[in-house]
Design a protein that fits this description.
Chain A: It holds the Pfam family Bac_DNA_binding. With about 90 residues, chain A is an alpha+beta fold. Chain A contains three helices and five strands; from the N terminus they run H-H-E-E-E-E-E-H. In chain A, helix 1 packs across helix 2. Chain B has three helices and six strands. In chain B, strand 4 and strand 5 form a beta hairpin. The chains are: A alpha+beta (about 90), B alpha+beta (about 100).
Chain lengths: ~90, ~100
């Protein structure tokens, strides 16, 4: 499922206008993005949590060409599924 | 930057400010959204949110484990796990 299908399903299942469903999904996603961009955690009970992880830079090698490349330090969000989601997927 | 956590209640508040609905209605709609997301991950094995990332379910095979307290060998059943794959766009925004 992609974002537009998610919006459509939300609209149909709850009998709300597509514009309102669009706004809801956008606010939901943008809130999470903004929080993570600021280095904050996101915790959605029953669904899961996101937190930023710091990765140090290192000198790597392109395995195809043997060329030495510098991998810069980066921070990336890491997701952990919540208990309810895990149980739901495995039921 | 330290210690702040965005919760479901914060998201409900942000949506509430943009509608004429009461908080309880907004909360129910957010729960409905989460249920749809969960079902999509279960049914399609993937939920793609452009500009954010992809939540992907994949199967882990059964494996032998051990109870560290009793040293007993146990077989851990096969299960589904979820991973988040960051979209290129969001990755660039975070590390730009």
């Amino acid at each position: 499922m992609n974002k537009s299908e998610l919006i459509k399903t939300l609209s149909e299942e709850n009998n709300i206008a597509i514009e309102e469903a669009t706004m809801m999904v956008n606010v939901f996603v943008d809130s999470m993005k903004d929080a993570l961009a600021e280095g904050n955690r996101v915790e959605i009970r029953g669904f899961g949590s996101f937190k930023m992880k710091e990765y140090e830079g290192y000198t790597g090698r392109n395995p195809k060409t043997g060329e030495v490349v510098t991998v810069h330090p980066k921070h990336l969000p890491f997701f952990r599924a919540g208990k309810e989601l895990k149980e739901f997927l495995n039921s | 930057m330290e210690g702040k956590t965005l919760t479901k209640a914060d998201i409900v508040d942000s949506i509430y400010e943009k509608t004429d609905r009461n908080r309880a209605e907004v909360k129910n709609l957010v729960e409905s959204l989460l249920d749809i997301m969960k079902s999509a991950i279960k049914k399609d094995h993937a939920l793609l949110i452009s500009g954010f990332g992809k939540l992907e379910a994949y199967d882990k095979k059964a494996r032998k484990g051990r109870n560290p307290q009793t040293d007993e060998t146990i077989t851990l059943p096969p299960r589904k796990v979820v991973v988040f794959r960051l979209s290129r766009k969001f990755r660039a925004e975070l590390n730009g």
